[in-house]
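Anyone able to model this chain together with flavin-adenine dinucleotide?
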Amino acid sequence: MKDVVIIGAGIIGCFLAYDLSKYDLKIAVVEKNMDVASGATKANSAIVHSGHDPKDGTLKALLNVRGSRMYEQICKDLNCHYEKIGAYVLACGAEEEDTLLQLAKQAENRNIPFEVHTHQEIVSREQNISDEVTKGLWLPSTAIITPWEVSCVLMDNAIERGTELHLNTEVTSIEKMNHGYRIVTSKGEMMSKVVINCAGVHADEVTAMVNPHPGFTITARRGEYFVLDHLKDPVVSIILFPVPSSKGKGVLLVPTIHHNLLLGPTSDPIDEKENVDSTKEGLAEVREKMHKLIKNVPMNQVVRTFSGNRPSGSTHDFVLEEDDLNPGFLICGAIESPGIASAPAISEYMIEHFVSKRLQLLNKNNLPALVLRQRLLSEMSDTERNDKISKDSRYGKIVCRCEQISEGEIVEAIHRNTPVLTLGAVKRRLRPGMGRCQGGFCEPLVLKILARELKLSLNEIVLEEAGSNVLLEKR
Ligand SMILES: Cc1cc2nc3c(=O)[nH]c(=O)nc-3n(C[C@H](O)[C@H](O)[C@H](O)COP(=O)(O)OP(=O)(O)OC[C@H]3O[C@@H](n4cnc5c(N)ncnc54)[C@H](O)[C@@H]3O)c2cc1C
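re: yes, here you go
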């Protein structure tokens, strides 16, 4: 019998696993995909929003403000990337300026640092700002992270403290028993006293496994992006938002931790919750809307497009509760934006309000982190790097030239606590395939290394999910 089974290893499931693994509990995380952070957590703007935007009185407002204040220390503890680069919300004309001033008021009420700047003040900081922009709300506490990096290191730590992670394992039904729940998966069954549903776009369906009237539904809202290569002269060095509309935060420009630039996202409801195709129409909308905020975007530097699906809830707020009919069945549903920014606070809220009422939480290990993010050769001094190469020559063999990643680093990533089973997983750990050539040169080498380390044949290696085999037969 487990104490807690967490369904879904997105950033919410990973934070809960990390926080709960500090207590003396038997924990399992069940994830249907072949990697952690492979749902919404994989494809988003990666912004730790300051918390100025959600409506008063919502869980989104409460937990975004709290989460944003927690992140810097958490990333420091885990050695994960975190950069407080700041953001502008930009208004074009009198009507938008009114909305901008309301947001400023909201920021003031929530003790979030802000300043209101004129067009001239904004241009003196960011020279490519469009002439249409009349005012800007400057939010210096807005930060960027890499959500899948944080998720992986959280999970590395949870596993180090004894948490079981079951990848490629889908929860197909749940039955309430006298003392807990029977969770049936594609790979067998397990019993648990408490179940935490962190199933992203499927959280409504997973709740329906125990309650035919879950009280909320989830619509997937697709967001499409362009990714620009890292440039010698970046177009912008901070995040740019338009004023928000009923469709959300709008089309943004977001520098990433690794100095790429994201342009997007759109926000369109779609029927197939897992469909992350990019579309001609969506990308055209991004191009058109970004010009309102910025000029001189070198679109010939686009290296990729991608899209991600928001789990948008019918209640227009996060659903964080214990199911009415099922004590011990806990729900983290409808975690759309600002879900990344709020994630540490969502985990804290769930443990404080619900888990602690069902389980005795005895502290096992209060250390902040046992496992840190893998340190890369590019972060080492020449002496450290030479030392590493002299001990293992694979660190001297560069596999990905765009991002300068060696074979030794890839092998090290594959053998960390959180399993690396797919080419996509290697890419998210170390970035081979994320550079200008998009894997054109390095992918065959990464494929060989992965097959060798996992003791599989080349044609068993998949890109992301079961069935996405890269090679089909040997000729
Ligand atoms: C376009 C876009 C932009 C965004 N930008 C931001 C931003 O800048 N800042 C911000 O704060 N937030 C942002 N968000 C929101 C943020 O990405 C999400 O709130 C967050 O990633 C949700 O995390 P999660 O763990 O709840 O869900 P997910 O990451 O989707 O994880 C859920 C997991 O559950 C698994 N699962 C589902 N069903 C089952 C089952 N039956 N059995 C086993 N496993 C199952 C899935 O495979 C998945 O891995 C954005 C989202 C999108 C799509």
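The pocket of flavin-adenine dinucleotide is lined by residues 7-13, 30-33, 38-41, 43-47, 49, 170-171, 198-200, 202, 206, 223, 265, 308-310, 335-341 (CB under 6 Å).
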